[in-house]
Amino acid sequence: MTPDVVYPAGVDERERRLAQNEALFREVNERVEAVAHQLGPDVPYEFVCECANADCTFRVELPLGVYESIRTDPKQFVVLPLHYTPEVEDLVAEKDSYWVVRKSGQAGEYVEQLDPRSR
Ligand SMILES: [Zn+2]
Predict the structure, then answer these.
(1) CA distance linking residue 84 with residue 100, whole number of Å
(2) Centroid of ligand 1 to alpha carbon of 58 (angstroms)
(3) Side-by-side strand order, sheet with 89-94
């Protein structure tokens, strides 16, 4: 006998961990941003790479205004070129110094909940 409705089993554990890493980096960038605000929206500033690799310590350089526009979507993250995990996210934009990725499916919903701005 099969149930009428199949409920999603929740975000897969590995996906969840990857998503959590990115959400953590984003929290760091919230603090970076407070400093960047003093420089104005057009001055390139070093944000931390928000990729899924918890050990990544690289910086991504982009102006606050650009970072802000990426952040208007809570499922979007800014990463270094090639720091992209196709199994949990889609590539949205490819620039010379950074890429923009967007979490899809349940990982997307999960990071949306983790967004400090949506709390
Ligand atoms: Zn990275």
Answers:
(1) 9
(2) 6
(3) 76-79, 99-103, 89-94
Least Cα distance to 99 among 63, 60, 69, 72 occurs for: 60
Neighbours of 102 (CB within 10 A): 17
> In which region does residue 101 sit, left (phi positive, over 0), alpha (psi from -120 to 50) or beta (all else)?
beta
pTM: 0.82
Scanning the structure block, which residue is given the tokens 């910086």?
59
pLDDT digits (tens, 9 = 90+) for 65-84: 999 999 999 999 999 999 99
Q: How far is the CA of 89 from the centre of ligand 1 (A)?
A: 14
